[in-house]
């Protein structure tokens, strides 16, 4: 029948098109020679496991916050923005191959790279502002000032602002989005341009990573210090949650560090006019450790956070002051 003949003709055409696109993609990828086909398969299988695990744990954590009285606590609600974005970035639909989003590889990489960069920066900024919130609360309690509720809206506005600032430059010709180590997704190009643009790109990399880590560490240091100095009831009530934020910050910085350092070395060597090619197994483990961060965050909070632990086990909140809106 005619429709059977049509299927038999179109199927090989579709397979040939996919083979051609994958071959063309590998030719464009600067890192295609790092992995063999077997290494790339191991990396993808590992990412499927780690990201699925992270997504499942993150879903449980977010439900324990959003479907209980914890959602009325402004501090937990601020934390929820971080846990939600970490969950969404690990869900299967968020990991569709970029080549499926557009028939043109360059346009697809720009689209995929922008959203990948925007969401990854937003994730880091959300945790940064969770740490900042801990210092602000401690500072206001120490000075006996009333807490300002619109600060929590401002935190998210700043997260979106920084995410845009660090992700839009390639859209205006400053840097570009190119294929990542996996050759499956796109990121800010780590091979610097031969122009003054490279100084801006290096600045963006430094601000995206070291600036955020510096703010996390400093804000939590001062929050803990104020908590040790001021022994009022309100400050003591905030201490457990500040400790929880400190633990998950350490966990996430440790998980983010390997892949951040690898990309940093590539950018640094490129800035010096040289080349740094990491080995396949180093990249594999860096990606796996990075992608397991949400699961590690969830497990840490389930074990150490009084409010979340009692919600899961006893279905009630810990005795913390609730700020209802």
Textual characterization of the structure:
It is found in: Membrane. By secondary structure, the protein is mainly α. It has one domain: Rhodopsin 7-helix transmembrane proteins (Rhopdopsin 7-helix transmembrane proteins), CATH 1.20.1070.10. 72% of the residues lie in helices and 2% in strands. It has ten helices and two strands. A two-stranded antiparallel sheet has the order 1-2. α4 packs parallel to α6, α7 runs antiparallel to α8 and α7 runs antiparallel to α9. The radius of gyration is 23 Å and the shape is globular. It starts with a helix and ends in an 11-residue tail after the last helix. The N terminus and C terminus are likely disordered.
How confident overall, as mean pLDDT?
Answer: 85
E-strand count: 2
CATH topology: Rhopdopsin 7-helix transmembrane proteins
Highest CATH level, the class? Mainly Alpha
Number of individual domains: 1
How many distinct helices?
Answer: 10
- Looking at the overall shape, the CATH architecture is Up-down Bundle
